[in-house]
Amino acid sequence: MRANKAKNTQPELKLRRALWQSGLRGYRVHWPKAPGKPDICYPSRRLAVFVHGCFWHRCPYCKPSLPKTNTAFWSNKFANNLSRDAKYGVMYREAGWQRLVVWECQLKHRQESIVAVIQALHSGVPESWQIAA
Q1: Which end of the chain has fewer CB atoms < 10 Å from its terminal CB, N or C?
Q2: 3-state secondary structure of 116
C-alpha cells in the first residue's frame, strides 16, 4: 500500500489537465483551508472537487470487487473511507460550499461532461450536477 499515492494521482492529473485546457484556471490543489483538502478547489467560488478512486472509495457505478484476503482489514478500511467521505459532505453543505465528487470511472468515459459541469458550477449556473456513469 505504500506505493499508492494520496495526492496527484493519474485521475487527478487528467482532470486538472482538462480543466487547464478548457480555460478553467485559478484553482488550488489540495487547499488546506477547506475541509478534507479537496483535490481541486476554487475558493472564491466556494467549489470543491474531489476525485475519488473507484477501489478506495467504493464506487457505486462500477462496484469494484472486494479483496479476497484479509477481509476484516479491508472492510474496516473501506467503512472508514466511506464514513470520512460522508462527514466531508455534511461539512461542505453546512459551510455553504458546492462539493462535486468525480469518480475515476466517470473520468475515463465522460471527461468532457465533467469539465462542462465544473464550468457551469464555476460560473454559477444552477443546474443538476449529478454525472451519470
Answers
A1: N
A2: helix
